[in-house]
Every structure is written in structure tokens, then in C-alpha cells.
Design a protein that fits this description.
about 775 residues; globular; seven-stranded mixed β-sheet; eight-stranded parallel β-barrel; alpha/beta
Length: about 775
């Protein structure tokens, strides 16, 4: 049955007299939506259905941000006043790791009991005339849609409304790796507390925070395999509660825990492609979930309610209102879910960080979601942040990004890398004036290491006719001109070459003429691990024979010899992005049945043979790195665990660092774009394979660079687009942080530009009075 007012039909917004609203679910989001809708239009008939009793609730305490509270205060001062009277507030976060506690202050939290929150909202709804039906199953969603003008589905993560219209909402539900249980302790923690327990069964963690003057929420979490190894799968509720209290006796001061029909569960991330269908709209956990470790579930639901009520008042039709609600909320929710996913995965992979020094571990935990960064943590608690910097080895006044890093015989003066960026501007593989200016400008811009684009080892190894090469002595001489400029004009900056072969992605047009599209004429033969075209319409490569593999290996070594003579300080082997060597590594692109295909060990064989051959001719004191795609963003492709194994294999063969990128291996990939979206892969490689890494992928701010390095998630950060926008990105990062040490040096010709120019007058007197400051009797009359 289809709800009335299907999308495309402009129904009046429910503001006319006697229009009816059904709210399914009596949690905070549903109740607050009901109260707001009734307050904004008392003529609305609003009914809330809640299957449980009034005081039944999951969990114990609720944390709300100042931002959310400000929205509540503005929309409904009465609810805000009631909440404000109940809040407990605190500023500190305690992290306890290996019997060491570190405290970071200045964070600002407000919490109250979930039951008390519901009581306040029950009272507000009743006072406004909302009908509350407890212990009552809501009618069938399609029936509600027929008998009401608006149906608000606030029925939680297991939403029956969402299920009823799953073909329209198209939900994606992801279960995660940890088990957790909500409990309570009858005393208040004096901070938000994270405590790590390393047991014989594996690592477990406690998340705890106060929600009243005499009680705290306690969440115990661990990976599924740890939960089973510890025998929790065989314990009843009371036994689980007692066991958790014993494991975290130090945090609890030996006091017991209590439950409230608590059960071990697995967090599920809910994402819906659409949030409304006709006159039915999803709200809160029915529409989206965010992991409890960033405390955003109730916050998001309350903010949904505020936005929905506002849009219904502002828009002329119900369809417009629901469209506006989703348009407003979706990007906010998506951002929160990205942060929550990062936090969730950090705790899932907690064991990777146990060896970190306790203070760095604490910083890593605090910045896990990427919402708290080095810079704003320094503003909140400068003392704590400076202590972390000292432990890391930062000289006084030196941001982490400007600390040196050594790779074999090369010491980089800072941690910034200009990422390889194809310029498609060479003629017959010969780099020219454009490359000199492009790479020279970025070297003058202060980065510790400047990388060339992928430099091809043969004419047939080019991606496009405009790709640079190193298959001839003339090309080596042209590159020597560039390396000499960097070493002479930007002393202290290193320049690296990235060697590669296009494989099946070659013989295509320049990027701005048609990315990945085959040339109209002048094509050259393509070769690859297997005869698979990159995408429909692409040319099919030939599968490489044993003899051709030998020839290719010799092309790489010959190019490496030329690169050494050209004066490059570092060589990177390109094994990513679906190019030739990457094509051997991925199971999606390597279908061989010989010694170079099948298992990961066999798929690694040829890339390792090339690496070994290049390492043998590359000068011993100069470092070699390898760029890999840590995931193909496609089912059946390279996994994060594969990436760790690949990185470890190259490190065992002598790679000095792994440049961790992702994707571009298959055309039908589905990457999860977002700020710093590839850095978790670098983090995992670094901390599981125990090899230095270069992180790359939508890292755009110096604050992110400092955060990632100080947390121990990467050793170097490679930035591409920021260096296209600003060739002097690193110099400007130093200026903005007030740093003038040896980690970055302004060329003397540019020194006068080391401070930003003024853009307008800033000394105008500030107004001292406004009309609103005057007593009412003194306010001038209109037109006076």
C-alpha cells in the first residue's frame, strides 16, 4: 500500500486547523518533534505511539552539546529551562592506559539521565496537548499514512516503518566488529573516562561519564572474538554485569555495576538513500545512526526534530518541507557519521595502539574522529598538548609537521610531501620548462620532499602522450636540470622520482580531453597482468608473457639507473591505482594461473622482483618507497588486511616507507570520500606492519597534518590539490603557526612575503551603543 501524497504531489504543509500528525516512537527525538509541532501550531492533532512503558529506556545517561542546547533554548525555552536544571557539567577527559592516567581539560560536556529527559519531554507534550499512547503498538505504517497528514517515524534503529517502505528508503545497514553493553554505576565519575583493560583474552575498554550527582553511565566494549574468548556469550545478564565490574574494578573503585535489561549488542550503522516517502518521514535512528563513542545519537535526533519543525513552518507544501528537511540535515548527518565511523574503527582496532607511550595514546584517542585536532586541542588544553609534543620529540615552539624525519641516508627537514601529480605536459617523455617551474615552485614553497609525477619506464608505459619518461639519456639530462634547480635554489628540500608503467590504463587522452578515454589515433599496444580492459570501451591489453616480464623488469632498472644519475634523492615504485604493477597485486585485475597469479603471495611475486631489481641498482644510501592502493573500493578486491601484508612484504625486501593510497584500480569502484578519508589505511599499515608510511588523500590543512603525525598514524603527509592551490603551502603553514625554525626556510627573495598582507582597514572604532541598548522611552520614533 502506497502512502497518500506520494512524492511529486504537492500537499499542503500540515499547518491548517485539525491536521493530524502521527509520531511512531516515544524516544527523545519523537517526543521533541511532537512537542515542537504542537507548540508551533496548537490546532494540530498529534499522537505519539510508544510500545514500551513511560519509564522503560535503553541506556542511562544522555550527553548533549552546547550547540544542540542552544537550538533547544531558542525553539522551546521551557524545555531548555527544565533540562538546564538537571544537567551535570564537566570539562575533563581521563584516559587510563597501562596504569597511567592522563587528563585533558577544556572540553565542556553536559549530561542528564535518559529517564529524566523522557520525563521532561512527557510533561512538555502533555502540557501542550499531545496525546501519548504507551504500551501501544503503532498501526501499520501504510494505514497511518492514509489516516494522518504526516507520519514521523522515530522508531529507532530497528524501525518497522523503514522496513515497511524499504524499497523507497533503500536502507544500508552495516554491523560492526565490537560487542558492547550499557550499564550504570551509582557514583559520579569526575570526568569522561576511557579505561583500557588488557586481559588474557584480549583488549577491552570502558567508556564512562556522569549523568547525575550520584550516577554514571558505563559502557563496556570489546571485539567479538574477545567477547567470545572471555566467555561472555555464555553468561546471563547478572553474570555479565558482575564480570565487567571485576575487570574494571580500578575504574569503579571496587563498586558494583547495575543493569537495566541490558544486553550485549553489536552497533549497526544505518544509512538511508531517502528519508521521506509521501507523507512519511524518518527521524533520528530510523534515518541514521552514529556510534555512541562520539555521543551523537540523541543529539542528532533532537536536531532532526528542530529542523523538521522549522521546515514545516517555513515551506508552502509538505513535499517542499520534507525535501528541505532532508537537504538541511543530510550533509550534517553525513559529516557526523564519518566522524563516528572513524571513532568506531579506532576502538575496533584499539590493539594496534597499545604499544604507544601512554600520553601519545591519549592524544591519539582524543583525536580519533578527526573532529578534535591538534590545534583545537591546544586551545582547550595547551599544557596537555605541549606535553604530548615534548614526548614526541618536538623542540619548543615546533609544530609536529616541522620535525625532521630520516629515511635511510636522507633526512627530510619536515614531514610535508608534495604528492605525485600527473601534469600531462611532456613531449615524447621529455620534461620541459613547465616541469621546471611546476616542481621548482613547490620546492621553493618549503615542503620537505617534492615528488615528480609518475615517470614512465618506456614509451609504451605512458598513460597519455603527455606523460614524462626516463627511458632515454636525454630525458635524464632534462630531469637533471630540475633536480639541480631544487638542490641549488631550495637547499634542504629533497626531490623524489616515482617510477611506473601504465599497464592497461595506457594509450589514453590527456586528462582534460577525456580522462581514461582511448586515443582517437596514435595508439600503442597495452600489456597487463591479465587481458582485462579497464572499463567498457577501453582497449583490451595483452597478458604479459614470461619473456615480457623480464624485459619490463630491465626497463625499470634502466630507468632507476638514469634516475640516480639525474640526481633524485628518493625513488618511489608505483604499485597503485591500477597501473601495471598494481594490476598484479589486485585479485580483480590479476586472473593469471601461473606463478604470478592466484594467492596474494603469488600476486606479489612480480612487483617484488621489480622492487628487488631496482633496489639493487639504486644507490644504497638513498631511500626507496612504494605506493600501494590499500583498498580497491570494490567487492572481491584488495582488503585492508591484504594491504598490511603487501606493505610488510615490501618492507621485508628493503622498502623504507609505504605510500598508502587507495582505489583507481577498477572503474566500478565505490570510494567513501571525505576529509582525510584514506588516512585510516595508512594508520593501519603503520601500526600493524610496523613500517613508516606516507599518508595521502584529502589532507588539506596543516592542523590535520600535525594531528596525524602527533597521534602516530603516519610519518609523512602527502598533499596534492593544496599544493596546486598554493605552491607555498608549507611556508604559509609555518607563517600561520608563527614558526620560524629550521624545519622550513623562506627563500630570501620571498622573505618579505612571510606575513600576510593587510586586506582592509582594521582600526575603525567599534560601535558602543545600539538602539536596543537604549531605555524604551528613549528609543527614537520611526522617522525621527
Amino acid at each position: 500500500m502506497t502512502p497518500s501524497g506520494a512524492r511529486g504531489t504537492a500537499r499542503p504543509a500540515p499547518t491548517a486547523p485539525h491536521l493530524s500528525v502521527a509520531v511512531v516512537g516515544g524516544g527523545p527525538g519523537g517526543l521533541y518533534a511532537a512537542a515542537l509541532l504542537k507548540r508551533l501550531d496548537p490546532s494540530r492533532n498529534i499522537t505519539v505511539w510508544e510500545r514500551n512503558a513511560p519509564h522503560d529506556t535503553f541506556g542511562f545517561g544522555v550527553v548533549l552539546s552546547d550547540e544542540t542546547l542552544g537550538g533547544i533554548e531558542h525553539a522551546d525555552p521551557e524545555v531548555y529551562t527544565a533540562l538546564k536544571a538537571e544537567f551535570v557539567r564537566w570539562d575533563d577527559i581521563d584516559i587510563v592506559h597501562r596504569n597511567t592516567r592522563h587528563t585533558s581539560g577544556g572540553h565542556g560536556f553536559a549530561a542528564l539521565g535518559r529517564r529524566r529527559l523522557l520525563e521532561i519531554l512527557h510533561h512538555r507534550c502533555r502540557s501542550l496537548g499531545v496525546e501519548l499512547r504507551f504500551r501501544a503498538e503503532a498501526p501499520d505504517p501504510a494505514r497511518l499514512a492514509e489516516t494522518h497528514d504526516l507520519v514521523v517515524a522515530a522508531d529507532g534503529v530497528h524501525s518497522s516503518t523503514r522496513t515497511a517502505f524499504a524499497d523507497v528508503f533503500r536502507p544500508h545497514i552495516t554491523a560492526h566488529r565490537c560487542r558492547y553493553i550499557w550499564l550504570a554505576a551509582d557514583f559520579p565519575f569526575d570526568a569522561f573516562r576511557f579505561e583500557i583493560a588488557e586481559t588474557e583474552h584480549g583488549v577491552m575498554q570502558l567508556h564512562g561519564y556522569p549523568f547525575s550527582a550520584d550516577a554514571s553511565t558505563v559502557i563496556v566494549e570489546m571485539r567479538e572474538e574477545v567477547w567470545r574468548a572471555a566467555g561472555f556469550d555464555e553468561l546471563d545478564e547478572a553474570e555479565s554485569v558482575e564480570r565487567c565490574a571485576k575487570i574494571f574494578a580500578d575504574a569503579l573503585g571496587g563498586r558494583p555495576l547495575r543493569s537495566n535489561n541490558s544486553a550485549w549488542t553489536t552497533f549497526r550503522t544505518v544509512v538511508n538513500e531517502r528519508w521521506s516517502h509521501g507523507n512519511v518521514v524518518l527521524l533520528g535512528d530510523a534515518a541514521h545512526t552514529a556510534h555512541f563513542s562520539i555521543g551523537s545519537g540523541t543529539k542528532l535526533a533532537v536536531e532532526d526534530a528542530l529542523a523538521l519543525a522549522a521546515c514545516l513552518s517555513e515551506q508552502p507544501t509538505l513535499t517542499d518541507a520534507l525535501d528541505a528537511y532532508e537537504t538541511e540535515r543530510r550533509p550534517v548527518v553525513a559529516s557526523t557519521q564519518r566522524a563516528a565511523r572513524a571513532s568506531l574503527e579506532w576502538f575496533e582496532n584499539l590493539a594496534l595502539y597499545l604499544r604507544q607511550p601512554p600520553r601519545q595514546f591519549a592524544f591519539n584517542l582524543l583525536t580519533r574522529s578527526r573532529r578534535v585536532t591538534h590545534d583545537n586541542l591546544r586551545l582547550r588544553d595547551a599544557r596537555f598538548t605541549e606535553a604530548v609534543e615534548r614526548g614526541f620529540g618536538c623542540p619548543p615552539g615546533t609544530p609536529p609537521m616541522f620535525t625532521p624525519f630520516r629515511l635511510r641516508g636522507l633526512t627530510l627537514r619536515n614531514r610535508v610531501v608534495v604528492s605525485p601529480m600527473d601534469m600531462y605536459s611532456a613531449a615524447d617523455g621529455l620534461p620541459g620548462d613547465f616541469h621546471l617551474v611546476h616542481l621548482g615552485a613547490r620546492a621553493l614553497g618549503g615542503a620537505g620532499l617534492v615528488m615528480t609525477e609518475m615517470v614512465c619506464v618506456s614509451p609504451e608505459g605512458r598513460i597519455t602522450p603527455g606523460c614524462a619518461g626516463l627511458w632515454s639519456g636525454r630525458q635524464a639530462e632534462a630531469w637533471r636540470r630540475i633536480t639541480d634547480f631544487v638542490h641549488t635554489r631550495a637547499p634542504g628540500t629533497a626531490i623524489g622520482v616515482q617510477l611506473g608503467h601504465s599497464g592497461r590504463k595506457g594509450s589514453t587522452k590527456l586528462m582534460w580531453e577525456g580522462m581514461d578515454e582511448p586515443l582517437d589515433e596514435g595508439n600503442w599496444p597495452l600489456v597487463a597482468a591479465s587481458p582485462l580492459p579497464y572499463r567498457p570501451g577501453s582497449r583490451t591489453p595483452r597478458e604479459l608473457s614470461r619473456a615480457q616480464l623480464t624485459d619490463l623488469r630491465e626497463q625499470f632498472t634502466a630507468a632507476a639507473v638514469r634516475a640516480a644519475r639525474a640526481g633524485f634523492d628518493l625513488l618511489e615504485l608505483h604499485c597503485a591505482h591500477g597501473y601495471l604493477l598494481s594490476g598484479f597485486l589486485s585479485p580483480l585485475t590479476n586472473r593469471r594461473t601461473d606463478a604470478y597469479g592466484g594467492s596474494l603471495e603469488k600476486r606479489l611475486r612480480f612487483p617484488l622482483e621489480v622492487f628487488d631489481a631496482v633496489r639493487a641498482v639504486w644507490p644504497e644510501d638513498r631511500p626507496m618507497t612504494v605506493r600501494i592502493s590499500a583498498t580497491d573500493w570494490a567487492e572481491g578486491g584488495t582488503t585492508a588486511q591484504d594491504a598490511v601484508a603487501i606493505a610488510r612484504a615490501f618492507a621485508d625486501h628493503g622498502a623504507d616507507a609505504i605510500d598508502v593510497s587507495t582505489g583507481q584500480v577498477v572503474a566500478d569502484e565505490e570510494p567513501e570520500f571525505g576529509r582525510s578519508y584514506q588516512t585510516p589505511f595508512a594508520d593501519r599499515v603503520r601500526n600493524e606492519a610496523r613500517v613508516p608510511v606516507i599518508a595521502v588523500g584529502a589532507i588539506s590543512s596543516w592542523d590535520d597534518v600535525n594531528s596525524l603525525i602527533l597521534a602516530g598514524r603516519t610519518d609523512l603527509c602527502a598533499l596534492a590539490r593544496p599544493h596546486l592551490y598554493d605552491p607555498h603551502w608549507t611556508l604559509h603553514a609555518a607563517a600561520e603557526q608563527g614558526y620560524e625554525g629550521p624545519g622550513v626556510v623562506w627563500p630570501p627573495q620571498y622573505r618579505a612575503g612571510s606575513r600576510p598582507p593587510r586586506t582592509g582597514r582594521t582600526d575603525a572604532p567599534k560601535p558602543r551603543l545600539t538602539l536596543s541598548d537604549l531605555p524604551l522611552a528613549e528609543t527614537p520614533a520611526p522617522g525621527a
